Amino acid sequence: MTEHFDMIVVGAGISGIGAGVHLKKHCPDRSYMILEGRPNIGGTWDLFRYPGIRSDSDMYTLGFNFKPWTDQKAIADGDSILRYLDETAREYGLYEKIRFGHHVEAAAWDSHTARWTVTARSDGKPVQFTCNFLYMCSGYYRYEAGYTPQFEGAERFRGRIIHPQHWPQDLDYAGKRVVVIGSGATAVTLVPEMAKTAHVTMLQRSPTYMISRPAEDRFANWLRRWLPPMAAYNIVRWRNVAMQQWLFRLARSKPEKLKKRLLGGVRDLLGPGYDVKTHFTPTYNPWEQRLCLVPDDDLFDAIREGRAEVATDHIDRFTETGILLKSGKTLDADIVVTATGLDLLFMAGIDVTLDGRKVDFPKTYGYKGIMFSGVPNLAVAFGYTNASWTLKADLTSEYLCRVLNHMKETGTDTVTPTLVDPNMEAEPWIDFSSGYFQRGLHQFPKQGKTVPWRLNQNYAGDVKMFRHAPVDDGVLRFSKAADASAQREPQAIAAE
């Protein structure tokens, strides 16, 4: 017998664990299961094991809205985040809801029954489940491999080339010459950590904006001594949300002012003799790509103390002993770390069909950034680019619980975002210039010019929309299984 659930959640990372808790709290009478392809919970925080792995957002906003973060450090290491997720899963009894080692490959919708048939692979064999609603909490990148450009001569290099997504736990880099290719969050984490025992060069084609802040939030730690944990957590959470939004608005309205402030902070930390213009001054405006967080000035300390250096140049080719740059300079290396980014993968790359027709997601429009025009009973957790991921994931799960409860109250089986104008002016799913987004955006749906077809990238605005706006807004179409097939716009969803 095929097992059936009211909802299937795909992924037991931070989004999927949060989804399970929200379902238990807000839809206690609904059955659900979480399918996880890996043997453990945690997603990103279980997959990545490179030295110094940590959050690049504060845990007061990366943490869940229902469980306070109580550790001393607001910028937390990967093990601390995994403990937090494990505590959450145990506290809410989620482990009994998770099927580990189930890699989802396909989902097929049947309008007559208003059900998804979900096909997963477990122990090398296909296994199927059915559900009324499918919720993808699988993140946005390919877990099997990160992105590594083709470097000429890489096969000649006598040292080791490593991508952080698959870090060898037996790697001994003490006393070695290390080149880290990249200048994003992973590189900025790796360089100061490895520089504790090795000499490290961060090789970048172009700089990234960086901002330094203490790893511990003194105000938050003080507040917890006087207030209950949840009260203190919420105060700090909203303070940090306000700071994030203020910084983002400043980047959009007065980019030169913010640029001057950010670069001034770097100059203060590296000293007047450092070439900040070459190595830390990007060609784009702040928040056109994500800011890199430097906790406790660790990267700048490593550079100032001579344990690390930055090279801003282009790679010509690898040699037997290192990397030859376009400028003619050579970087000798025993180990090269390619912190060159992620390989984006929309909805875990699963094959989605509606009544036998493959869904062409790039032809759809995103509804509130979580559902898709013409696609029934399907949602995705996709966080903010200008704030912490979990802020949006929590709101998405809460909202879906409202949708499920509305469907129960109205006796409906199907909910479909309905696009009245299929020729609506379109924009990319995400307005972000980072290379890994630009490489993968062709897989993603479009967004429109106005709400609800536009991603707000604004937490306060989304709180109003997801928690307080009517669920039945005239755009979501609710129907029963018998007439579900007549309620969709096949030209928006089907691939020929």
From TrEMBL:
Signal peptide positions (record): none
Transmembrane segment boundaries: none
Cofactor(s) needed by this chain: FAD
Keywords: FAD, Flavoprotein, Monooxygenase, Oxidoreductase
Family: Belongs to the FAD-binding monooxygenase family.
This protein's record includes keyword Lyase: no
UniProt-listed PANTHER family: MONOOXYGENASE, PUTATIVE (AFU_ORTHOLOGUE AFUA_8G02570)-RELATED (PTHR43872)
Organism: Sphingosinicella xenopeptidilytica
Protein's name in the database: Flavin-containing monooxygenase
InterPro entries: FAD-binding_MO, FAD/NAD-bd_sf, Flavin_mOase-like
Domain of life: Bacteria
Known EC number: 1.14.13.-
Lineage, highest ranks first: Bacteria, Pseudomonadati, Pseudomonadota, Alphaproteobacteria, Sphingomonadales
Keyword Transmembrane helix: no
Annotated GO MF terms: monooxygenase activity
Pfam families linked: FMO-like (PF00743), NAD_binding_8 (PF13450)
